[in-house]
Specification:
The structure holds 3 protein chains of 3 kinds. Chain A has 9 helices and no strands. By secondary structure, chain A is an all-alpha fold. Chain A folds into 2 domains: 126 residues; 124 residues. The longest helix of chain A has 39 residues. Chain A is globular, with a radius of gyration of 23 Å. Chain A starts with a helix and ends in a 5-residue tail after the last helix. The model of chain A has no long low-confidence stretch (mean pLDDT 86). Chain B contains 5 helices and 2 strands; from the N terminus they run H-H-H-E-E-H-H. A two-stranded antiparallel sheet of chain B has the order 1-2. In chain B, helix 1 crosses helix 4 and helix 2 packs across helix 3. Chain C is of the alpha/beta class. In chain C, strands 6-7-8-3-9-10 form a 6-stranded mixed beta sheet, with helices on both faces. In chain C, strands 2-1-4-5 form a 4-stranded antiparallel beta sheet, with helices on one face. In chain C, a hairpin with a 2-residue loop joins strand 9 and strand 10. In chain C, 45% of the residues are buried. The chains are: A mainly alpha, B mainly alpha, C alpha/beta. Chains A and C meet through helix 1 and helix 3 of A and helix 2 and helix 3 of C.
Chain lengths: 252, 119, 244
């Protein structure tokens, strides 16, 4: 059932983002082409075009991340606490499946958007791939990495910590909206208040944890422990969201 | 033929009477297959359970019988059909006499006028 | 155990301090078309939302087909809400696919066929459809399932008489004879002849639960006439006992 929910959520994501992702990539390609034409005689006009394109590109990227945030909030608020909730909550699934599906989709949106941004940066400047692949440093670096598998583990753990932080952020957003939903009036205002409250709580929690435990970022255990420390309040938030959806749902 | 339902009597009874009327007037000829409950219910815009009850009542009156393969068949028992036709006729006569009595005619006068009118 | 499709025992529901249902005991068998009748604010929508799992009761228990409300009952309940629940980006066929994915009793082919007979183009985007067309799509979604329980919240409110007749006919011809239909309305004269039973709901309580035939036989008048009497607004003689 979770997979079916994901299919539906990912389709909604694709509908919202295919255009903006495509636009960002297309713009960066244009930028790259113009850049490669720079030494040509129409140098000055090339610069003008380039500056326009790069401005539009940076606006697009900024807009993309604003839209990502709006998308994450709207998909939860409209999809589970608004009119679409009439559909989602009468499907034969459990609330945790609904929440998890939205969470996974939100993470995917962020990750793909970050990936698109990197891709945009690469495309912006035309690279001579042939040259890069034959740089001696690259092969030395690869060889060195492979001889130190530790490094890859660190990288994976670092990703895990970043991912945990994202999960925590989204969970706080979800819980704020769910708390706002508990009120009959001024739900948005209460949601914002809840968000501020939760934010303060999480800050208190993190300073407290930092006081009692010393996490050494250099060690595997330290990285894993910090991921766990971040995931713990996230799990609490998500459990609270599920409880509210199960017991206190009140679609007007 | 339209289905007419009034407010003060059970719906199944009204349906049953109108079905009986259709049978004696030949809309559903003797020995023919009656439409299914769902078809009739949809046609009359009523609940299938109500139509079912109306049809059961027809069976009790001997106007229709359930058949294993063909659903429900109109009876070929002419005596039963005749009895219902007579009952309907009596109801028509009753209405006629009531209307005539309202106009101030006695039963005999009403009968006489009827004879004159038909001759 | 499952003689009754719907079983409610002592069900109460309040929104904050405001009570919506104040002790509902109800049993409805399979294969019935039941009218849930009452004026606005009598608790009809609340009862339906409790049965389809959108709300939890404050007290009491509810069961559908012998099961407590949860994914198992949601799989056999087909619910028509009193509002639109569509996401803008979808087409009708997208919704049909979604329903086919989630409900084993949904027939995609039947849904398409129903669209054809209703004059709805299933490949159109919902965003471009009129309100009436969207309502038809929603009705198709609900009736293309062969559910055990159909919960229809005000299916004929706010549509013209021709559409009303049409909707009732759609319900009659498409519902699986085994299923039970519970439909709420305050337009009784229009639905009376399709109902087996009626439930009168007043101020969160069941006033009457009887078959339509029994009411007509005993009272010698239509359910509509009885309803008008039961729910007649009494004259107000000032405020007795202080504050309102």
């Amino acid at each position: 059932m979770l997979l079916k929910l994901l299919k539906y959520d990912f389709r909604a994501m694709w509908k919202s983002f295919s255009l903006i992702w495509g636009a960002a990539m297309a713009l960066s390609l244009v930028h790259g082409v113009v850049y490669s034409l720079r030494p040509m005689p129409f140098y000055s006009s090339g610069v003008t075009v380039m500056s326009i394109v790069s401005t539009v590109l940076s606006i697009t990227l900024t807009a993309m991340f604003v839209i990502v945030l709006v998308f994450i909030i709207r998909r939860f608020e409209k999809g589970l606490l608004g009119d679409e909730g009439y559909l989602m909550h009468t499907l034969p699934v459990r609330p945790w499946q609904l929440v998890l599906s939205k969470l996974i989709c939100a993470l995917a949106v962020i990750i793909i958007s970050v990936a698109v941004s990197f891709l945009v940066l690469i495309l912006m400047i035309p690279v001579d791939w042939y040259e890069i692949l034959y740089l001696p440093y690259l092969w030395d670096f690869l060889r060195w990495t492979l001889s130190h598998p530790d490094l890859l583990a660190y990288l994976a753990e670092l990703c895990l910590v970043v991912l945990s932080c994202l999960v925590l952020g989204i969970s706080i957003l979800y819980l704020s909206m769910a708390i706002g939903h508990l009120f009959h009036r001024r739900r948005t205002l209460m949601g914002v208040a809840a968000f501020i409250g939760l934010y303060i709580l999480i800050n208190i929690y993190s300073t407290w944890v930092a006081d009692i435990a010393i996490f050494r970022m250099e060690s595997h255990a330290g990285l894993l422990a910090s991921a766990a420390v971040v995931l713990l309040p996230a799990a609490v938030c998500l459990a609270a969201v599920c409880w509210i959806l199960e017991h206190r749902l009140d679609l007007e | 033929m339209e289905w007419k339902l009034d407010d003060d009597r059970p719906i199944w009874l009204q349906l049953s009477q109108q079905l009986a009327r259709r049978i004696v007037t030949g809309t559903y000829p003797p020995g023919s297959r009656l439409p299914s409950v769902r078809e009739l219910a949809a046609e009359a815009g009523v609940n299938p359970n109500t139509m079912q009850r109306a049809l059961s009542h027809l069976e009790q009156e001997g106007l229709a019988r359930a058949d294993r393969t063909a659903g429900r068949l109109v009876t070929q028992d002419t005596a039963a059909l005749e009895a219902v036709r007579l009952r309907e006729a009596e109801a028509v006569i009753q209405r006629y006499l009531e209307a005539m009595s309202a106009l101030g005619y006695s039963r005999e006068q009403a009968a006489g006028l009827l004879k004159e009118g038909t001759s | 155990m499952n003689d009754y499709l719907i079983q409610c025992r002592g069900v109460r529901k309040s929104y904050g301090r405001k009570p919506a249902l104040t002790g509902v005991d109800l049993e409805v068998g399979p294969g019935r078309i039941v009218g849930l009748l009452g004026p606005n604010g009598s608790g009809k929508t609340t009862l339906i939302k409790l049965l389809c799992g959108l709300l939890r009761p404050t007290a009491g228990t509810l069961a559908v087909d012998g099961e407590r409300i949860g994914p198992a009952t949601k799989a056999v309940v087909s619910y028509l809400p009193d509002r639109m629940y569509f996401a803008d980006w979808m087409r009708a066929v997208d919704l049909f696919q979604l329903f086919r994915d989630f409900y084993a009793d949904f027939s995609y082919e039947k849904a398409i066929a129903m669209c054809r007979s209703l004059g709805v183009e299933p490949k159109d985007r919902l965003k471009t459809m009129s309100k009436g067309t969207k309502e038809k799509v929603q009705l198709v979604l609900v009736m293309a399932r062969s559910a055990k329980l159909y919960l229809l919240d005000e299916p004929i409110a706010g549509v013209d008489p021709a559409a009303r007749d049409f909707i009732l006919r759609t319900i009659l011809t498409n519902y699986d004879g085994e299923g039970t239909v519970l439909l709420s309305t305050h337009l009784i004269s229009d639905v009376e002849k399709v109902l087996d039973e009626v439930i009168f709901l007043k101020e969160g309580r069941i006033m009457l639960h009887e078959t339509v035939d029994a009411i007509r036989e005993q009272e010698g008048r239509s359910v509509d006439a009885l309803f008008r009497e039961v729910f007649q607004a009494g004259p107000v003689f000032g405020m007795e006992g202080g504050m309102s």
